[in-house]
Amino acid sequence: MGDKDKEWESHLRSLSSAARDSADPAADPSLLNSVKSLYELCKSDKSDELVARVYPLLNKIFHRCVASISQTQASSGLLLLAILQFFLDFGDIVLLDAEASLRTFFRSCLSREFADPVVAEASLAFLSSNKTKLLKAFPTLFPQFFPLMLKLIAWNGEKLKNSFLSIFSGFISPGSFIPLFPALVDLPILVVALEKVERSSGSLVGSSIASIQKSAAPEMLLALMDEAYTGSMIGDGGADSESEDSAPMAAADPIFLDLLKDENEGLAERHWTSPAMASALQAVISTPLSNRLKEALKIAPQLLDSYFKLAVYDANDSLICALIPLIMARYSTLFPDKMFCYEVQKRLLEFMLSAFHRSPHFIALLKKPIVDRLGEAYDNPGKTELGLQLCWAIGEYGGGGESHKDAARELFESLELLLYENLSASRLGLGEAAHGSGSSSFRKSSQSRLLCFVVTAIAKLATYHRELLPRARVSLAKVARSRLSDARVWKRAQDYLGLMNEPAICLSVLGPSTSGKLTQHPGTINWNEGHKKMIAHIPFYILGGQEGPPPHDFSILDILPTE
């Protein structure tokens, strides 16, 4: 018998002994080496007979190992991954569908050992090397377990970032596209939740958070019923709410349980109305941030970059249109870290505005959430900035386009209301407890900026939909006569009123960048239509500041041909 045959028989005896033994297979450190060696021998020899002899033993070991996970302290992740690799590569030979085994691994093993850095790194390496095969054979696997995958990167940090990004595209599917967005935005809060579990329950390695979730179901159901019928808030712990770290996870923080789930249930996130969430975040930011949380604050914006890039190429218009209201809702509800908020909000705005640029009709379809956000523009600086950008988008894209006149009228009325409210009283920042001259100056500056955006949006929207011009003139005239302390506002209104007396110039400056099939660049005039649209002097007065002969050699008739 050759050395290769002796090695084969030795490893096969090791597997056979482990399959018969009642002890936990993961407790034998030599078993992993035997599994890997037999896998390599089967792969190099390409013998179906050898595969058929090995498979029954590995199948027994796999199920015995899974059954003993909850009763042993030994890590079984690496052993199960080695067996899964065998199942994937030789499943066709033994007529095995590996999907059930993969799901069992995620639910029974990885849900308990995601905090083990060795198992986490090996799991991502396994998924990355088999990504193409897994996505082709089991297309729903990655999207279903993306919450569990996020735990890997949340707990183990930047050292696994590249491996995680290599499989990230597999998480995108029609069923996971919307739920994935809040999960990425809330990655730092996931770290807070995991650290909270660790403080209250001990090490996360070997413990099942899923069992905590299941035990909390009755309490959460009663809390939901109480909120629905009595109006009381979920998680209101009364006098005991301050002692959060010592309270059971299930009773104190129901909102955290949604973050800690292992599988995608296709449900949108809960609103940030839980007192437990507010107090937990306040406790976190009032103390030095952990290194793990600092890494999550850096990783989350990078994951959003990948998410939005994939959304542009892979997601259809229906999914993107459904995502935008969620983006608007989450814009001002982020983990309270200044740099994190800046990085995330910048990406949210860029994606939202690029979506409006690519599909202007989204503005008409989403007029209700847009109007709601404009009504919240006073609450805090984040909502004010979002309101500014929405005002710009409404004006820039004509409220959705020429075919959406009803939506444009409703958006125009919302802009009017926003304008009149700001003119009648300085309501900006009433939602904040702002005191002192510095806060007052900031509110006035924000209000002036908001008014400039609203005035411009009204002028642009009326230029696009000319039936709104009379109402726009009334609105702008009120601003021009108001003589606000910030002259930029009423002077801008005066400028727009003057432009409206010159329709061709107004259309060129304030009109849409596209009109039907023709491209109209803002700031230019279509001279071929001048004899039909202009009702005042040719705008050579813009050259009035220049001296000497005119810098042209053409006549008026060359510019404005007559019929």
Describe this structure in words.
With 563 residues, the protein is mostly helical. Helices cover 67% and strands 1% of the residues. It has helices at residues 3-20, 29-45, 48-67, 77-94, 99-113, 117-129, 131-137, 141-144, 146-156, 161-167, 177-185, 187-201, 209-230, 249-252, 254-259, 275-285, 291-314, 317-330, 338-358, 361-365, 367-375, 381-396, 405-424, 437-464, 469-482, 487-500, 503-510, 530-533, 556-559, and strands at 514-515, 518-519. Strands 1-2 form a two-stranded antiparallel ribbon. Strand 1 and strand 2 (518-519) form a beta hairpin. Helix 3 (48-67) crosses helix 4 (77-94), helix 11 packs antiparallel against helix 17 (291-314) and helix 25 packs antiparallel against helix 26 (487-500). The longest helix is centred in the last third of the chain and has 28 residues, at 437-464. It starts with a helix and ends with a helix.
Keywords:
single chain, 563 residues, mainly alpha, two-stranded antiparallel sheet, 2 strands, elongated
